[in-house]
Write a structure and sequence with these properties.
The complex is a heterotrimer of chains A (361), B (422) and C (216). With 361 residues, chain A is an alpha/beta fold. Chain A contains 18 helices and nine strands. In chain A, β5 and β6 form a beta hairpin. In chain A, α2 crosses α3, α4 packs across α11 and α5 packs across α11. The termini of chain A are far apart. In chain B, α4 packs across α5 and α6 packs across α8. The chains are: A alpha/beta (361), B mainly alpha (422), C mainly alpha (216). At the B-C interface, α2, α7 and α15 of B face α2, α4, α5, α8 and α11 of C.
């Protein structure tokens, strides 16, 4: 691919009309809650943007994130934008294999040193580097090496962003996230298991347009997509507020579309755009399909106390702990009570009769 | 000779603490509402008279000895011990400014029976030598002479003679096998001699077989007021001994509040066994006679009469209706104070306050609560059934120039009894 | 998130242990002290009047109310608000349902939200009143202030978490649960015990009066 092409030229060569391109810019801008003028600015910037070099590293992952990004029944603009970047290394998608593939990565790094965007999916095992290698190179080594020349890193998916499933207790591979290892580069976490395709392209589009990181939350997630909780944007929220809950997956409440809180919905603590963007070209999303939110875009969501346990239920074993504490309390209280009784008895037997002669003294 | 020490006081505190004490102290949240039921706080506005704070010494002893956390704190030297200085400071709070009226116990939102705890705390105060002078004197006289006022049987005997001469009634003394042993209070003998005459007159008409005892005529109990079970036991035992000796079925308390508490509620526990007789207040007996048709009266008082309930009888003994039924047969214009019965206001003199000269000024201030109640309904006379209340009412009425006579209920009844000459 | 997992897991276990163990000890310490036998002939029963006092002390004496209306009204307000938020907020009921299998109807969230606001305002009023009224100032100890803080924090953090005023939400929720754990840990060692012992105290009071023929 010729990297001298601008993004605009490249898109038109792929058959995208100017009108369609502007529509995409407007939609992306509004999705990211940018001011109205931003759509035109974005269009102008994208039109002229050089196709940036992108290196995509996949570590301990399931390819779900790549699937989310690439699967589409009709070629979407997101997909085309994706085609329009210069994806110089992605071992799942690229044709090259073996040493040719690694050569492509090294070449891209050399040519765009300091400018390329590094996208990572999957977590990195530290317990034994041999748990996950590519071309004989351990994940941690490859990440550190490639990160050195990157302008910024986008950690796609919860595994790259927070450690994800591999990091779930007891974390046999010693999995860590990208930000656990790289501290000297700008990092954007695009969490989710997997993240919504549009979110990935939206983040890339904004980075390409403005050349800077989007506004991020405490977990370095773009506020545009992760600024509101599932719960606050959920169409079932009115049922929660009224106290109408599905108690099981096939009861009347479930049929009537009541709130799934009692079935373990993690919507209140989960920040993601599922409730507004939805999945599969806006077809549906888990809660609409009748399943509680798992909280997949949050750190440690695998360990948050069971997918089907309500959020407010402690993960601690309440009944057992209370039982032990009660037994210990009865034992200690019994002893304490007996000590009290003996203090009283001693006091009573030690009582010296008060006489009026003593009062006078 | 042995002497009273802090050590003995602390031992007494320990011996007094029981499950209710622990439950009460565990529950107080310092809301301060007890102050709003205490006449000493209300009439002075001084927060140190807040009832629950009067119990601080007992509370410290409880916390440091009967809670696990308190014991640990004490072992580590983190808690302040109860000292003689502390008890000296608390003496005024526990004696001068508390009449044990129990009104705070009725309103505490968490149910702390504060009067019960003040009574217990006084045990430790006595044993550690922190009781007030006036009560010490009263106790000494009671134990040594048989009367807190130092009155001896010959004085009573002279009065009996005078009464027998004036009226045609006989006043039986030491009649073994009589049904009722009548007790008196020294204050009645000295200040209200008409009481004994009234009793004799009523009993004659009703045909009651009664007697006085020459060895024990005094019902009051300075031990209860000072808060010493040892002294109280000594005094109650004399009554029990006399009653058992005369083989009476009933022992009748006089028009005196604390004497009834001492006889009726504390006595059996002081001697550690139930009585072989029943203990009644004179008003309860008169009401029984009325119910049996043995109390026949004629005519009614036409002036506006009200009733002052002694705390020891109403709130603390459940004797509330008998006096009202008796008022019903002798008064046609009876008016209740707004808060009466178990919710009456104390006159300010009970619980040993009146025997404690140091508290005289405070006692008169506290009386303003009763004054306000009386002023509100403007009666011509106040009727009561406790000599201590009666004395306080008379003194207070004089102090505040109210010009309202006070009369004992038994005398009022006697005035209407139909005299039948045999 | 690690913080939330910690407060919902090990920290909750610890707080629950201290709470249950501590309260059991406290209650046994009370009951095992016992009462002396009472030989005075009773005028009435103990049990019934005791139970009645347990109930009727929820209503305030009219005279006391007329002299301390603010104290009484604010006291009622925050207790009712606090208990309603504690027991009638749906996620809280879900906690009981999830751990003990007990469930009861809750209040709609906007109502609980309003009650929480009322509770917060009342608690602040209680604190101001405590520092101004001569009697309450005289009675107040450092422990009372500590207990006030421990009571205020769960309502405040709950309110902030519900309104998402602290970000991210797991931190807000974690702080809320942590503040409740603080309350649980302090419970057996402070006047907070009154939440349990008030019923015992009222019963003893009612029983003592009942024995003498008076309904206290």
């Amino acid at each position: 691919m010729a990297d001298t092409d601008t993004l605009g030229e490249s898109l038109r060569r792929l058959g995208v009309t100017r009108r369609g391109f502007l529509k995409f810019c407007a939609a992306t801008a509004s999705m990211m809650a940018l001011p109205p003028g931003a759509a035109a600015a974005m269009a102008a910037a994208l039109e002229k943007a050089r196709r940036p070099s992108v290196i995509w590293l996949s570590f301990q992952e399931c390819t779900g994130c790549t699937e989310s990004l690439t699967r589409s029944d009709a070629p979407s603009l997101e997909g085309l934008i994706f085609n329009a970047i210069s994806l110089d290394y992605h071992h799942t998608l690229q044709a090259a294999a073996g040493s040719a593939a690694e050569a492509a990565r090294e070449q891209a790094m050399k040519e765009s040193w300091g400018k390329y965007l590094l996208v990572v999916d999957g977590s990195i095992p530290l317990a034994n580097p041999g748990y996950s290698t590519i071309a004989g190179i351990s994940n941690v080594e490859m990440l550190k090496e490639t990160a050195q020349g990157a302008a910024a890193i986008v950690a796609v998916g919860t595994c790259a962003a927070f450690g994800g499933l591999p990091k779930a207790r007891p974390n046999p591979t010693g999995a860590v996230s990208v930000s656990d290892l790289i501290t000297d580069k700008p990092i954007i976490n695009v969490s989710g298991c997997p993240p919504i395709g549009a979110v990935i392209t939206g983040v890339l589009a904004q980075y390409l347009t403005f050349g800077q990181l989007p506004d991020l939350d405490a977990y370095r997630r773009p506020r545009a997509f992760y600024g509101q909780s599932i719960h606050d944007r959920c169409y079932r929220r009115p049922f929660y507020d009224k106290g109408l809950f599905a108690e099981s997956f096939d009861d009347e409440g479930a049929k009537k579309g009541w709130c799934l809180y009692r079935l373990g919905c993690k919507g209140p603590m989960t920040y993601n755009a599922c409730a507004t963007l939805r999945w599969n070209q806006g077809t549906s999303w888990p809660v609409e399909a009748g399943h509680p939110c798992l909280g997949c875009s949050e750190p440690s969501f695998w360990d948050a106390g069971g997918f089907y346990k309500a959020l407010s239920v402690p993960t601690a074993e309440v009944a057992r702990t209370a039982g032990y504490a009660l037994a210990a309390g009865v034992a200690i209280g019994g002893v304490a009570g007996m000590v009290g009784q003996s203090i009283k008895t001693t006091a009573a037997t030690g009582h010296q009769k008060v006489t009026v002669d003593e009062l006078e003294a | 000779m042995s002497e009273l020490t802090l050590e003995r006081g602390l031992t007494a505190f320990l011996a007094e603490i029981d499950a209710p004490t622990a439950a009460y102290f565990s529950s107080c949240v310092h809301c301060g509402l007890c102050a709003e039921a205490c006449l000493f706080y209300l009439e002075t506005g001084d927060p140190q008279y807040t009832p629950i704070k009067k119990l601080e010494p007992l509370k410290w002893v409880w916390e440091q000895n009967f809670t696990l956390a308190g014991r640990i704190k004490k072992a580590l030297g983190l808690s302040k011990p109860v000292t003689n200085e502390m008890l000296a400071t608390w003496q005024e709070l526990l004696y001068d400014s508390c009449s044990l009226c129990g009104r705070c116990s009725m309103v505490c939102p968490v149910g702390v029976d504060i009067a019960y705890l003040v009574r217990k705390t006084r045990e430790g105060m006595v044993a550690s030598g922190h009781a007030p002078e006036g009560l010490i004197e009263a106790s000494r006289r009671a134990v040594q002479t048989g009367s807190p006022m130092g009155l001896q049987f010959p004085t009573l005997q002279a009065q009996i003679k005078r009464l027998e001469k004036e009226g045609s009634t006989q006043i039986p003394v030491d009649q073994t096998g009589a049904d009722y042993l009548i007790l008196l209070s020294s204050m009645e003998i000295i200040s209200f001699p008409e009481y004994l005459g009234a009793v004799a007159k009523i009993f004659k008409q009703a045909g009651v077989r009664w007697t006085l005892s020459s060895v024990c005529f005094e019902a009051t109990n300075a031990g209860i007021q000072i808060g010493s079970s040892d002294i109280a036991r000594e005094l109650v035992s004399r009554i029990v001994k006399a009653a058992e000796h005369l083989r009476v079925q009933y022992v009748i308390g006089p028009e005196c509040g604390h004497a009834f508490t001492a006889l009726r509620w504390e006595g059996p526990n002081l001697i550690g066994r139930p009585y072989p007789f029943k203990a009644l207040h004179i008003i309860e007996l008169l009401d029984q006679l009325r119910a049996e048709g043995r109390l026949k009266t004629t005519g009614k008082e036409s002036d506006r009469l009200t009733l002052h309930d002694p705390c020891n009888l109403a709130r603390k003994s459940g004797c509330i209706e008998p006096q009202r039924r008796l008022m019903g047969i002798v008064a046609e214009n009876f008016v209740e104070m707004t808060e009466h019965g178990e919710f009456n206001w104390c006159c300010g003199a009970g619980g040993g306050v009146s025997s404690n000269e140091r508290a005289d000024a405070l006692r008169m201030k506290a009386f303003r609560r009763k004054k306000a109640q009386i002023d509100e309904i403007q009666p011509n006379r106040v009727v009561t059934l406790c000599a201590t209340c009666r004395t306080q009412l008379e003194e207070g009425i004089e102090e505040y120039k109210m010009d309202i006579p006070v009369i004992g209920l038994t005398e009022l009844i006697a005035e209407h009894v139909i005299e039948t000459d045999e | 998130m690690e913080f939330l997992l910690w407060v919902r897991g090990p920290a909750f276990n610890l707080a629950l242990t201290v709470f249950v163990l501590g309260m059991t000890v406290r209650l046994l310490e009370i009951f095992l002290l016992g009462r002396r036998p009472n030989y005075a002939e009773p005028r009435g029963p103990e049990f019934g009047p005791g139970m009645k006092t347990v109930l009727n002390r929820f209503a305030v004496d009219p005279g006391v109310f007329s002299r301390a209306p603010f104290n009484v009204v604010v006291g009622y307000l925050w207790h009712i608000g606090f208990l309603a938020c504690l027991f009638l907020f749906i996620p809280h009921i879900e906690l009981a349902h999830g751990t003990f299998g007990l469930s009861w109807p809750g209040l709609p969230n906007p109502l609980v939200d309003a009650l929480a606001a009322v509770t917060l305002v009342s608690l602040v009023a209680v604190l101001i009143h405590r520092n101004r009224h001569p009697v309450m100032r005289y009675l107040t100890t450092r422990e009372d202030t500590l207990v006030w803080i421990a009571t205020f924090l769960p309502v405040l953090t709950g309110y902030l978490a519900y309104h998402r005023a602290i970000n991210p939400y797991p931190v807000a929720l974690g702080l809320h649960i942590l503040s409740v754990e603080l309350l649980m840990v302090l419970f057996p060692f402070t006047q907070l015990t009154h939440a349990f012992t008030v019923f015992i105290a009222r019963w003893y009071n009612g029983a003592a009066f009942g024995r003498k023929g008076v309904q206290s």
